[in-house]
Amino acid sequence: MNNNITFCAVYRNEAQRVRMNLDFANEMFSRKIIVVQESDDDTLKICQDYPAKIIQRPSESPEESKDYIMEQVETPWTFWLDADEVPSISTISFLEMFDPLLMEDKDAVSFRRINYIDGFTIVGGQENDRQFRMLRKDVRWKPKEQGRRIHIHPLVKNPYISQRCIFHHRTLEKVERQTERWNSLEPQTKDVCDKYVADVKKELCLKKSQ
For residue 127, what pLDDT is reported? Predict the structure, then answer.
């Protein structure tokens, strides 16, 4: 276990998938901080089966919960995963060997995210999908300062761009459901979101026919 990293996550209605995340975190990290937002399923009950600091929060933006978690962190660095993400073997090795002294001039690590939709690798309008999943403990999102947007990224000044990856598992049904939600929150993005769904459907259809 790497004692320099705290595993962090925000879950809401993720009972069907959350054990995969928590089993991984339990093997890798001695310190874990989990926020469970108001859920209609057994997400909270499942999280309580694991040795972690579990915090209940109201239904708020993920970034607000993430900033709250960062206030509780005591290790130099954090590692984050969504419930539908799985780190690659090379990413796991990187985490196991991670030495904060070698990253004194960096405050975040970005990983390539490979999208798996209905069992197929899909580019679908996200040719360069990167996510900050390792953050120095003093990094924040500050969503109120960044304004009302769907995706609010952490305020990172000096990133380390890693070629290691994280696998993002979804279904076409979830892609369509999320896109519908995005359009309701930010109607000005409707054309972009609709094009993304169309690209995913086109690529899925092509791969299923091969």
Answer: 66
Are the CB atoms for 103 and 155 separated by under 8 Å?
no
Which residue type is seen at 127?
A: E
Q: What domains are defined for the chain?
A: 5-171 (3.90.550.10)
Type of residue numbered 81: L
Specify the pLDDT at position 129.
Answer: 86
| Residue reference for tokens 């089966």 | 49
Closest CA to 12 of 49, 33, 40: 40
Question: Where do we find the tokens 């928590």?
Answer: 22
Predicted TM-score (pTM) of the model is 0.91
112-151 pLDDT, tens digit each: 999 999 999 998 766 678 999 999 999 999 998 888 777 7
Report d(CA 190, CA 196) in Å as an integer: 10
The tokens of 92 are what?
């796991």
**Torsion angle, alpha carbons of 151, 21, 104, 102, to 10:** -140
Identify residue 189 by its one-letter amino acid code: T
Tokens of 19: 């054990």
User: How does strand 77-80 pair with strand 108-117?
Assistant: unpaired
pLDDT at 74 (0 to 100): 97
Q: Residue ranges of the chain with pLDDT lower than 50?
A: none
Q: What is the DSSP string of 128-197?
A: T-EEEEEEETT----HHHH-S-S------SSEEEEEEEEEEEE-HHHHHHHHHHHHHH-GGGHHHHHHHH
CB 35 within 8 A of CB 57: yes
